Amino acid sequence: MDTFAALSQGVMVALQPMNLLFAFVGVMLGTAVGVLPGIGPALTVALLLPITFKLDPAGSLIMFAGIYYGGMYGGSTASILLNTPGESASIVTALEGNKMARAGRGGPALATAAIGSFVAGTIATIGLALIAPTIVDLAISFGPEDYFALMVLAFTTVSAAFGSSVTRGLTSLFIGLSLGLIGIDLQSGQARLSFGVPDLLDGVEVTTLAVALFAIGETLSVVAAGARADEIIEPVKGSVFMNREDWKRSWKPWLRGTFLGFPIGAMPAGGAEIPTFLSYALEKRLCRKPGEFGNGAIEGVAGPEAANNAAAAGVLVPLLTLGLPTSATAAIMLAGFQQYGMNPGPLLFATNPDLVWGLIASLFIANGMLLVLNLPLVGLWVRLLAIPRPWLYGGILVFATLGTLGANPSLVELGMLLVFGLLGYVLRRYDYPIAPVVVGLILGPLAEQQLRRALAISVGDPLVLFQSPVALTLYVLSALALFGPLLFYVITGRKAPVGADED
Amino acid sequence: MSDSRPTSTAGPDKARFVIAFALAVLALVVGWDAWRLSGINTYSAVGPEAFPAIIAAGLALLALANAVEAVREGAQDRPRDEAGPMAWVLAGLIGQIVLLAFGAGFAIATGWLFAATAKGFGRGPLWGHFLAGAAMCFVIYVVFAKGLQLALPAGPLERLI
């Protein structure tokens, strides 16, 4: 009952004209960047952070959430028409979607993706609203040792879920953790790893790192690939409307995808990629015309797209209730909260209920906007795909440096952008995932804070970390995340079907 | 990444050896810093050196793990990256910093970045793109400085307004 009172209060906040405008701008921007190759929602939010610094917190956070949801929609458009997913959770959509587009059924593919995303997004957002208060109640009783264990779980799942091997994921994570050490230690006042450079005393800015890794690193790897990376756009032929058979074949995959995506996204297990792979495998098994799989089966678009969006909403559960980002975009959104001096977590529900519930309510609105906008505007999005790459990437770099200079007009900051950009290029070149670096930078200092708090309470006895049942359970889950793929390999003799990257 | 799946050939993967080595160096730096901090007396149960020490240990282990994987997986055939286009983009980024350092202002410096990036992606002429980029960045400067009160570096062009 309380939930509904709070949510209806949130709806009032979300329906304010200004906030509706923010949501609209967010979903338009999000769809555009989701469609464009090379920029995703994480980068866009990172670039907008310095610009929104002086705006109303609720409005900007609503816009960020709109970008996040919009990015998911846009990604599906790009993967269906271009066969190069705009963001990684759309990789599976490209498998069947692009085949459908080539067979002249691009319209229905886009439609089932859009409607499936809407269905999944709505159900998952209801799930978020229902489940969040329970987790908040639970989280209130968490001690610092439990929070530390929770962060260890986030670390391990993020490293195991992204990238082609656990070693690579952990390597990225530890690079991020090392970067997180830089600056003044708030408890003792000691400068760490700053080598006397004053600009380093404040630590590495999350936005600088994210913009460098995503924008500069991506640009460098695309330009280095040269003519290798040329793409063909499939024109949308025929009607964008689905016929009766399309509907009949789509609605069950939508629901199944939702129920796969939301729980996996909501667990501190990172990312929207895994449920899309699972949903694809499930639909392939259940489909009554298995021969169509691989040649453009509509189920193979409907299921994964729903899973993708449900997981995207699920990721907001640990972010809002525990302050735990499990994807790069969520990590940047956490930075967005922090720039207004707010920390997502159980306390935020008590101190800023209007903001939190306004944000959740605006997710419903964003979802509706996306459904209404996406199909009629498909022509516009397709035209975005046709921007010549020299101008697109030139523009991306202009905005990347603009965002960095806007946040901190210092040349050292630009130098760091360059250095981290090169790091991003090297990571991409040798198949190391990017997201764990960002998550490590933002969660590392928080984990250290909880660790030291726990040890301060126990007067330095490290056993306190393993005495709470909550923490123990979380460590077991962490171990499973790390060694799960290995177990899978030992038991079935096949490589675990994980491994995706970015956002 | 659109690279095709790399195939393995004989010998260890040199690139990942280099990465392993870099991680080992990073472990040493972080570990050295932790050691330096441990010498400073602080009044808390856990000092500022504890967490860095854990990370240094983790980095050292990962250096080993990467080296082991480099040997086990063998050398990889990665598609060759083109140095020329990359050099243009890097020249754009470094040039922007240098131009800003000499007070050229946001529009000129970022115009150069735009032109060099476009050149790297194979679109000339450099001169025309520089003019277009500088004009675009000048508009951006006006919007940001006037509309959002963000301080972007000003140069001779920006001081005209």
Describe this protein's structure.
The complex is a heterodimer of chains A (503) and B (161). Chain A is an all-alpha fold and 503 residues long. Chain A has one domain (2-492). Chain A has 20 helices and two strands. In chain A, helix 9 (206-225) crosses helix 18. The longest helix of chain A has 35 residues, at 106-140. Chain A is globular. With 161 residues, chain B is an all-alpha fold. Chain B has two domains: 8-76; 83-160, no CATH class. Chain B is built from five helices and two strands; from the N terminus they run βααβααα. Chain B has helices spanning 14-38, 50-73, 83-101, 106-120, 126-147; strands at 8-9, 75-76. In chain B, helix 3 packs antiparallel against helix 4 (106-120) and helix 4 packs across helix 5 (126-147). The longest helix of chain B has 25 residues, at 14-38. The chains are: A mainly alpha (503), B mainly alpha (161). Chains A and B meet through helix 8, helix 9, helix 17, helix 18 and helix 19 of A and helix 1, helix 2, helix 3, helix 4 and helix 5 of B.
Question: Secondary-structure blueprint of this entry?
Answer:
The complex is a heterodimer of chains A (503) and B (161).
Chain A: H1 2-14, H2 17-35, H3 41-52, H4 57-82, H5 91-102, H6 106-140, H7 144-161, H8 166-181, E1 183-184, E2 191-192, H9 206-225, H10 244-266, H11 273-286, H12 299-322, H13 328-339, H14 346-351, H15 353-374, H16 378-385, H17 389-407, H18 411-429, H19 435-457, H20 469-492
Antiparallel strand pairs in A: 1-2
Helix pairs in contact in A: 1-15, 2-4, 2-15, 3-4, 3-9, 3-13, 3-17, 4-5, 4-6, 4-12, 4-13, 4-15, 4-16, 5-6, 5-12, 6-10, 6-12, 6-15, 7-8, 7-19, 7-20, 8-19, 9-17, 9-18, 10-11, 10-12, 11-12, 13-19
Chain B: E1 8-9, H1 14-38, H2 50-73, E2 75-76, H3 83-101, H4 106-120, H5 126-147
Helix pairs in contact in B: 1-2, 3-4, 4-5
